[in-house]
Every structure is written in structure tokens, then in C-alpha cells.
Amino acid sequence: MGLAEFTAELEAMRSAAATAFASAADVEALEAARVDFLGAKAGRLRAAQKGLGAVAKQDKPLAGKHFNEAKQAIEASFAAAQQRLASNGSAKRTGPAFDPTVPGTPLVLGHLHPITQTIDELTDIMGRLGFAVADGPEIEDEWHNFEALNIPLSHPARDPLENFYLSTAKAADPAGGKLKQAATSEPTLLLRSQTSTVQIRVMEKTPPPVRIIALGRVYRPDTADATHYPMFHQIEGLLIDRHVTMADLKTVLRLFASSYLGSDVRIRFRPSFFPFTEPSVEVDMSWNDGWLEFGGAGMVDPNVLRSVGYDPDEVSGFAFGLGVERLCMRRHAIDDIREFYKNDVRFLEQF
Ligand code: FA5
After folding, report:
1. Which DSSP helix (H) or strand (E) runs through 321?
2. How is domain 114-348 classified at the CATH fold level?
């Protein structure tokens, strides 16, 4: 074969390959063209290489040079076509766009609300002191929220302005502003204002001894400020047995406070009044340079024991009700209760 003929064949192949690669619409078409021109066994370039043997000896160096140039040009137009398909997204199988060294997008994991975490921790602490968890409804009747707790109808704590009644028309007497019993047999319902309701529900069902805690939401029409919110959580404790004394109450509350707040916390008891305990105390914890009340407590009033069918000559007991938010605030140095309920993730994700 003459040099001119060989070179012309290479030239034709080069432009045919360039056209085939450039017009391949997808990876499959490009692969077929690759096999046609660059296939190791039966590709056209391979065939041309074999034709090199038929070129006259003196023309061989030049023919070889032309062959190499054509090969490089064909390979370059194949690479360009590959690049084109990868960048327009059709190179699914070759996948050159995937870079395994690029760091992944981190998963953002949620977590429990700080108040839920606090509730879990308080439950653990009281569990270690032998208290089981009891539960009660957030929508309550007046018997459990007031009457059985020795809070008579005339007591100011039952004022419609102090509670979220669900049927205020029945609770208030529009004429004299005084409270009166519902005329119908339907019980008047309200959002419970304290978890002390659960004390009654448990004692109604369980003979003594009793050793429970109850945790949950309570509702009061209080104006929100740094330490008050209209919905908050309480942890209630109740222990009924023979010979329970005020010393037991103080010991349990001190143990509880130091377990949750640390041994450096100071707590103090102030004489107070609750209709359902006698004597009663309010409990403060050291707070910055002063004190903050975090709960009420006392020895269960004999009237309460009688209202659930217990004999006050046989058993005695103590009860307490503590504000969960305030405990959590002290533990984490949060100075405003409203932070818990703004749903600002920048605050919440710190816990
Ligand atoms: C009671 O609710 C009584 N049931 C406690 C009790 C139980 C006494 C058993 C005796 C025996 P008091 O209204 O003081 O008590 O509320 C108890 C605690 O709830 C307060 O010390 C405070 O920590 C928290 N608390 C009260 N009102 C709010 C409020 N609006 N926002 C946040 N926390 C509150």
C-alpha cells in the first residue's frame, strides 16, 4: 500500500470517528462508537495498524507517525464526547460526577425538649427513692381539683378568674359574683391548676401505703413573666404510711434537690398554708444572690385522708408539688421561663 493511500485512509477514519463520537446521544451510543473505532480486537484503528505492515519499508517511519497522530486524535475526540455526556447528565453509568471524597451533608438529629428531659431525670431520681409514677387527666372535675383537697366552694382559689374553667357559666354566679354549685348533674370541668389532683385519684383507688409521684402540665391564667407562665409543669409527690413525719418530708426534698441541682444547692422551708396540708410549707432554693420558691409541701390534712376513705388515726403522710420549669431554670442558669415556649431552636438545641 502506498503512503498516500494509507494516510488518506487514516484521515477518513479520523473524521468519521470525530463525527460518530460527537453525535453519540447517550452513553450506549458512545460505547458502540468506541468499540467500532478503538476496539482492541476488531476496531477500525486496529485494522489500520495491521495495514501498516503493507506500506513500503522506506515509508514506514512516516506512516507510523501518521498512525500515531490519528490514534491520538481519535482518542481525544472520544474523551471529549465522554466529557460532554457527563456534564449534561446522561452519563449515568460512568458516573464521573460522583466524588466520594466530598464530605456528606450532616444529618440534623432532633432531641427531647428540655422540660421533657427534666421530667425524665426527676422521675429517675424519685424512682431511686422508691416512688412510682402515677398519672391523671389534664381536664379535671371540681371534686379532684378542689373539693377532695379540702378547698371549699367559697375559697378564692376556685374563682373563675384564677382558673381555666371549661364551662364557666356553671361555675360563676353572675348575680352576686359568688360561686355556686352546678345546677345540673354534669360536673363542672376545668384545666387542672395543680397536679395535687392525682393524689386524690391514686388514694381513691389504692389502699395505703402509697408512694407516688405525678408529673405533668397544669394551667393557670397567670400573666407570663420571668418565673410564671400560664401553662407549666409540676412534679407532685405523695407518701402515705404509718408514722410518716415532717422530718421524712424534709429529708426527701433535700435529697431530691441535691440530686437534681447539686450538693451546693441550699433549700429552705417557710411556714405557709395549703387547704390540703397541715402544717404546710413553701420551699425555696438558693437563686443567684437570693431565693426562689420552687414548691409547696406539707403533711396531708386529715380531711383529705377522710375524703378518700383513709383513717387519719391509722395513717399519715406528706405531699409536695414543685415547679418543673423553675428546677430546670436553676439547673441550667436560665433566667426567663418564657424561653422554654418560644420554640426558638437556637435556645432549644443547647440542651
Ligand atoms: C401548688 O400548686 C400546690 N398544689 C403544691 C402542694 C402540693 C402543696 C402538695 C402541698 C402539698 P403552688 O401554687 O405554690 O402550690 O405551686 C407550686 C409551684 O409551682 C410553685 O412553687 C412554682 O414553682 C410553680 N408555679 C406556680 N405557678 C407557676 C407559674 N405560673 N409558672 C411557673 N411555675 C409556677
Report:
1. strand 316-323
2. BirA Bifunctional Protein; domain 2 (3.30.930)
